[in-house]
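Example S7 (structure tokens).
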């Protein structure tokens, strides 16, 4: 017995949605990395299978026919359902692979070694990520992420488990007026300029800049003329800005001309394990167990 729709080629459906999005076969072919004549033949195959014309070709490009407009939302839903079916099937299987992401200078070697010892047949990998990689978990490039909270991207669909905490320090030039002090407070920072990251969520930015201040005075912002963390360190060395970081962050110590000063009276940084909230993976629990089993305290703890 033939199952309705079972011979519909999802690859052709995907091609159709891309052409519909760009309304131009040439641009769609470039996005799909296929030759335009080949893309045209694939769309013709889909039209022959459906028995309707999906596009009207025009000198300016292509536009959906009435049948194409009716088919488009169904095609998008079909592709999404197929993608979700793949994810559901993978989630239902016993995990044989586990990828742990980590950012900045955080070290996870000890816990990973223990986890590999507990699961010698599993493929356990680590992946260093950019600090603001918002899609690593949702795109399933990693199954867990070790990072400093608050995260610089939305975390409403993530579960955060605290691993340890680190006090915070002020990073300044060795020639700065506060360099060499035993500690500073928020009141000492009133005139200091701090960088602001426009791409981070407000919660992260406020935490990194100690906002709002007790006196209600807005924090002075450094010009947005940096592209990387190393650029910001250069700005600090030039005394154009200062930074507030976790005490365990070793990167400023590797750059000459910088020093750190403890900041008193502020909340510490929480280092967390972030996972997808709707997913249960036994290797996540085992990783947490491995972490708590005599894991050496990181610097700054």
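Recovered sequence:
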């Amino acid at each position: 017995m033939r199952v309705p729709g079972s011979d519909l080629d999802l690859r052709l459906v995907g091609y159709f949605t891309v052409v519909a999005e760009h309304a131009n076969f040439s641009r769609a072919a470039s996005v799909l990395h296929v030759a335009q004549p080949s893309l045209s033949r694939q769309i013709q195959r889909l039209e022959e299978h459906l028995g309707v014309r999906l596009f009207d070709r025009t000198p300016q490009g292509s536009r959906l026919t009435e049948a194409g407009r009716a088919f488009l939302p169904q095609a998008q839903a079909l592709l999404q359902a197929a993608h979700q079916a793949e994810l559901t099937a993978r989630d239902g299987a016993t995990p044989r692979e586990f990828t742990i992401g980590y950012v900045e200078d955080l070290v996870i070697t000890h816990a990973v070694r223990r986890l590999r010892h507990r699961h010698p047949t599993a493929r356990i990998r680590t992946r260093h990520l950019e600090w603001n990689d918002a899609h690593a978990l949702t795109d399933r490039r990693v199954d867990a992420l070790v990072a400093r909270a608050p995260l610089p991207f939305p975390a409403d669909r993530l579960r955060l488990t605290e691993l340890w905490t680190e006090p915070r320090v002020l990073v300044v030039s060795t020639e700065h007026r506060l360099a060499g002090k035993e500690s500073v407070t928020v009141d000492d920072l009133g005139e200091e300029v701090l960088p602001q990251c426009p791409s981070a969520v407000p919660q992260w930015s406020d935490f990194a800049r100690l906002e709002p201040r007790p006196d209600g005075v807005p924090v002075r912002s450094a010009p947005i003329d940096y592209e990387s963390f190393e650029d910001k360190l250069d700005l600090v060395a030039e005394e154009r800005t200062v930074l507030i970081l976790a005490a365990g962050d070793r990167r400023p110590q590797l750059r000459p001309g910088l020093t750190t000063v403890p900041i008193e009276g502020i909340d510490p940084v929480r280092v967390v394990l972030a996972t997808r909230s709707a997913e249960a993976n036994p290797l996540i629990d085992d990783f947490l167990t491995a972490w708590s089993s005599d894991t050496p305290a990181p610097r700054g703890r």
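Notes on this example. The chain has a mean pLDDT of 86.
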